[in-house]
Amino acid sequence: MESSASARPVILLSNREPYEHVRTPAGVTLRRPPGGLVSALDPTLRRTHGVWVAWGSGSADRETADAAGRVAVPPPPAEPMYTLRRVWLDAADVEGYYLGFANSVLWPLCHLLIHHLQFRDEEWARYQRVNERFAAAAREEVSRLRRAGGPDPTVWIHDYHLALAAASLRGTVPGIFIHQFWHIPFPPPEILHLLPYGVSEALLRGLLGNDLLAFHTDRYAVNFLECAAQLLPGTTVDRGNLTVQYAGHVTSLAAFPISIDVHRFESLAADASAAMAVSDLRRRYASDGRQLGVSVDRVDYTKGIPERLRALDLLWERAPELRGRVTMLVVAVPSRTELPPYQALEEEILQTVEAINLRYGTSTWTPIVYLTESMPPSALASIYRAADLCLVSSLQDGMNLVAKEFIACQIDERGVLVLSRFTGAAEEIDGAVLVNPFNVDGFVKGILAALEMPAAERARRMHAMREQLRLATVFDWLNAVMARVDAMMGTAVLADAPARP
Ligand code: ADQ
């Protein structure tokens, strides 16, 4: 077993770090970013005593790391199990690499929302330099682990912030297995082609440094393959086997739909305190047979929040009898607030909510309850469980974990999922009411169908979706990725799953 890939340390590269040290009036405190991905990947790093390379973004990150940016995690009093290697970015790096090229070029481009695309040479240059710095840090960690003896590490890169790291590593660290998971959609060639000459080629070359490049769906993998075939001279693609050959190296493409820790969300929703929160929510918003609709997103133009509000507006305009029959709880936590399109979107959402509430609200009914705070998973679980319907209306979305969290928490099987067909989740899950957020009339019909769906039909669909989700948790995702890595390296491996009660 020691020589199998399961015993190999993983060197994981991502923009966000799993542990952030922040300075507060009370001293240095540790913060763990929310989200299931870190909790899913952390056990793998612990088990293999690997290294997580990430941007040291916390205000006290430098003082808690050594001169090379290394800190043993988890921090005391827990027993340290792996190394967090922090990469330092200055304000211009954050501006150019993160807010600039990653979030104002790749993000809108991959989500096909090209009117938000803002390319600048300086930001592209920063992106390249920061990617090189991540690769250099990973290179040092590979050398360090190799000097220490033991099995050779593998490198696992995450997401669109680090599109160039794989090729940089491949060129300088021979013999290492490198793979990457791309968390957002991948666009078709005519969209990638909107980048200036040389940039799309550089991105493709960067990603083709991977041995395995994984996406949520086959569609994104095929888009990548077609981009390589059409935009990067010198590639040979195999559409049957989903491989791309370039400069003597073969990259395999694959689809692994990501998921959530289903058991954790189910348990949170079934907890006694959740039951109390659910009755409180239903007493406040869903008494007298009124239905409760919910939505949960980061404020992001990909999530289709204005489109959702417009559909609700039209619903109440066309069906006055539904006024007072459904309350919508919109949870929208601000994100990327440094960027003008995000500021404008927040303003637009706020104004639209206010206008709708003014138009239809009464002394006893507020149509839209708008919450902007970041919430612990337990609070989200109560909201999901309390809901009669959940609206997910992304214009494009790699997967959308909110849809899966809602399904996991629907332990009473009372709710209906209204889901944009432009999410990765829609390609995987059977049983949602699918809508096209660009078609407001169709969207209204979808909401109506959900509101009018009989209880037995709701329970049947939700039950089926819950069964399906239980068979595809984030640990199954991790196992599938690792098994593929392993098959490509010629051994067998199973990822950690948490102990079940
Ligand atoms: P995101 O674009 O962030 O992820 P999503 O998959 O929906 O989108 O995940 C959002 C996460 O944030 C969920 O876990 C949700 O619970 C959490 N969240 C939202 N609002 C919150 C709030 N107010 N308080 C606390 N938590 C909140 C990207 C891609 C997706 C892909 C994921 C994973 O855009 O398509 O599914 O990565 O690969």
Task: Quote the CATH topology of the largest domain.
Answer: Rossmann fold
Number of separate structural domains: 2
Amino-to-carboxy terminus distance: 27 Å
The hetero molecules present are: adenosine-5'-diphosphate-glucose
| Contiguous uncertain segments of 5+ residues | none
Q: Any idea what the CATH superfamily of the largest domain is called? A: Glycogen Phosphorylase B
**What is the mean pLDDT?**
95
Number of strand segments: 18
Radius of gyration: 23 Å
Strand and helix map with partners:
Elements lengths: L9 E5 L5 E5 L2 E5 L4 H13 L2 E5 L14 E4 L8 E6 L3 H20 L10 H27 L6 E5 L6 H8 L4 E5 L7 H4 L6 H9 L4 E4 L2 H14 L4 E3 L4 E4 L2 E7 L6 H9 L1 H14 L5 E8 L6 H14 L7 E8 L6 H21 L7 E4 L5 H10 L2 E4 L8 H9 L6 E5 L3 H5 L4 E3 L4 H13 L2 H16 L3 H16 L12
Parallel strand pairs: 1-4, 1-7, 4-6, 7-8, 8-9, 9-12, 13-14, 13-16, 14-15, 16-17, 17-18
Antiparallel strand pairs: 2-3, 5-6, 10-11, 11-12
Helix pairs in contact: 2-3, 3-4, 8-12, 8-13, 9-12, 10-11, 10-15, 12-13
Bound molecules: adenosine-5'-diphosphate-glucose (ADQ).
The site of adenosine-5'-diphosphate-glucose (ADQ) has 21 residues, from strand 13, strand 14 and helix 13.
